């Protein structure tokens, strides 16, 4: 930094740095905190260090450097004043040779001037804990929260912003500060505005209390505005897919229950009683499935923003619990009572005929459920076993398992009743009842487990998650994807969430491609002061943020278009 110091043999030097702004030394104050700069040399190694008593000496000023000897220092060790050291023989020879050679340097001067550059920064603004002056609010919020009328909003500044909804590109908002000022102008004071808000809350509370008295009117209102699906579409859900399977099963199981009940009354067979209870449990459970399917097709509302698709899992879960309590419980009870108090059984001919008819009907329903599951599994690229184990369609799964258990139960009951007819021992019939109860308990446990897993929020297949992630990573605006979550919401609906690290250069370039570069260059050339620079950066910075939001919307829209099962996408900027 100071090449002239390399010619100095002094062991210790002390520099004084004085602040100077184009002024002479005589105009400077006499008492200035002086930082000490020390110099050591030894063994061919030179060391220079600085000690500043005050950090303010580093500000943007001119400084004067003086070299002082420590020989004249006082008791405190501070230098007594600037002293010109005596040159050595080598220095005298170097100076004489420099003078004769006509060198530009004339030896060491007593003072050298250096310039220190310090970057200029803008003063940080303090916004406080609550700052809402730049907030935007919609017309609905302005009318609800500030008790304004549409005519009051017509006089305010209208700002067009990018819409967060897929069906609209832009919408109108208002500055919150303008709305607050207009509310004070309309109502006169904050107290009057607060009284009006409380009055409207009381009216809303009264409306909520009376809402159950007007259910029919409310339903017609929702149908008119499209908040619920038309009735024709609800009926259509029971003519195809899982709804068709459930309706066929509920009709057949209802008839089976009626005929099995007559056979039990006629014969008194414990196995026949278990089969009658089995058919009754199936009928009731499938009635629950009908309710679940009808509720699951409802559109989302303000209370349930993600819809009602989980109603199928809830109905299937209740169905599993019902099978366990009604079917398995009563079958075990009747079987145990038959073992404890055996009774003779009447002719089983009619029982065999009814069981044969039940086997045919239950088998037909089972085939309908199997075909529907095969079709759905093929559409989702899953095997039959994976589709059933993952409970992708809970309603069809319930019908499948119930009918499979019914077919096995009919075979088991017929076998035990045959053994009783051959041996005359009623214990075989009671064992058949216990076997049917155990079969129903196993089915109910499986349904409870699979539907509970689905309600807890189950991730979709890893291959599908990888496909969605690769689509985002292949976009030029995306650098990396983190914390990916893809949850199955039921009815083949997926909710996708990910942390996205965007490439700021690509986003900025996308913004610049839509701008007039010549105009931006002219604006840059006109920037002369920090205030003008701040205004320029704030203007384009806000537009770049809007461009980033548009990139997020574009990715979400393309992700939904390429993957129709993805209904909700949450991309968070990392």
TrEMBL record:
Task: Give the highest taxon in the source lineage.
Answer: Eukaryota
The ranges of region (Disordered) come to: 70-106
- Which Gene3D superfamilies does the record cross-reference, listed alphabetically? Cation efflux protein transmembrane domain, XPA C-terminal domain
Regarding the membrane, this protein is recorded as: Multi-pass membrane protein
For this UniProt record, give its keywords in alphabetical order, as a comma-separated list. Answer: Antiport, Endoplasmic reticulum, Ion transport, Membrane, Mitochondrion, Nucleus, Transcription, Transcription regulation, Transmembrane, Transmembrane helix, Transport, Zinc, Zinc transport
- List compositional bias (Polar residues) regions by residue number: 93-106
Name of the protein this chain belongs to: Proton-coupled zinc antiporter SLC30A9, mitochondrial
Provide the species name: Sinocyclocheilus grahami
């Amino acid at each position: 930094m100071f090449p002239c110091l390399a010619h100095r043999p002094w062991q210790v030097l002390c520099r004084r740095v004085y602040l100077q702004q184009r002024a002479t030394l005589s105009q400077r104050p006499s008492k200035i905190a002086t930082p000490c700069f020390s110099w050591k040399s030894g063994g061919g190694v030179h060391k220079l260090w600085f000690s500043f008593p005050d950090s303010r000496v580093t500000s943007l000023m001119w400084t004067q450097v003086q070299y002082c000897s420590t020989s004249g220092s006082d008791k405190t060790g501070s230098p007594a004043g600037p002293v010109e050291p005596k040159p050595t023989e080598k220095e005298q020879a170097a100076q004489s040779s420099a003078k004769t050679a006509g060198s530009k340097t004339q030896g060491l001067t007593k003072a050298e001037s250096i310039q220190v550059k310090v970057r200029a920064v803008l003063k940080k603004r303090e916004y406080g804990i609550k700052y809402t002056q730049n907030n935007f609010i919609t017309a609905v919020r302005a009318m609800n929260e500030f008790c304004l009328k549409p005519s009051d909003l017509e006089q305010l500044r209208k700002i067009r912003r990018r819409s967060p909804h897929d069906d609209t590109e832009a919408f109108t908002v208002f500055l919150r500060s303008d709305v607050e000022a207009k509310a004070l102008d309309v109502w006169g004071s904050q107290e009057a505005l607060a009284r009006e808000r409380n009055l409207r809350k009381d009216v809303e509370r009264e409306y909520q209390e009376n809402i159950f008295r007007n259910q029919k009117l409310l339903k017609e209102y929702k149908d008119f505005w499209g908040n619920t699906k038309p009735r024709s579409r609800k009926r259509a859900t029971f003519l195809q897919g899982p709804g068709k399977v459930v309706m066929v099963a509920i009709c057949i199981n209802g008839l089976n229950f009626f005929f099995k009940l007559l056979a039990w009354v006629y014969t008194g067979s414990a196995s026949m009683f278990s089969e009658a209870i089995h058919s009754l449990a199936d009928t009731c459970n499938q009635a629950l499935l009908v309710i679940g399917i009808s509720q699951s097709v409802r559109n989302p509302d303000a209370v349930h923003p993600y819809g009602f698709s989980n109603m199928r899992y809830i109905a299937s879960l209740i169905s599993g619990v019902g099978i366990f309590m009604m079917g398995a419980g009563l079958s075990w009870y009747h079987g145990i009572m038959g073992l404890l108090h055996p009774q003779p059984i009447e002719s089983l001919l009619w029982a065999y005929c009814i069981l044969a008819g039940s086997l045919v009907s239950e088998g037909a329903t089972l085939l309908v459920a199997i075909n529907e599951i095969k079709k759905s599994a093929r559409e989702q690229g899953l095997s039959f076993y994976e589709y059933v184990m993952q409970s992708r369609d809970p309603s069809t799964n319930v019908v499948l398992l119930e009918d499979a258990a019914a077919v096995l139960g009919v075979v088991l009951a017929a076998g035990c009743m045959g053994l009783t007819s051959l041996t005359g021992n009623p214990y075989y019939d009671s064992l058949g009842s216990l076997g049917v109860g155990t079969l129903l308990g196993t089915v109910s446990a499986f349904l409870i487990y699979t539907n509970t897993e689905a309600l807890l929020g189950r991730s979709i297949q890893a291959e599908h998650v990888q496909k969605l992630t690769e689509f985002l990573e292949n976009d030029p605006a995306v650098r990396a994807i983190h914390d990916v979550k893809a949850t199955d919401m039921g009815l083949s609906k997926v909710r996708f969430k990910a942390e996205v690290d965007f490439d700021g250069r690509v986003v900025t370039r996308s913004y610049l491609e839509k701008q007039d570069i010549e105009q931006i260059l002219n604006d840059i050339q006109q920037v002369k002061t920090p205030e003008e620079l701040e205004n320029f950066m704030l203007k384009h910075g806000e537009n770049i943020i809007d461009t980033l939001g548009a990139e997020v919307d574009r990715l979400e829209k393309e992700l939904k278009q390429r993957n129709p099962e993805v209904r909700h996408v949450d991309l968070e900027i990392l």
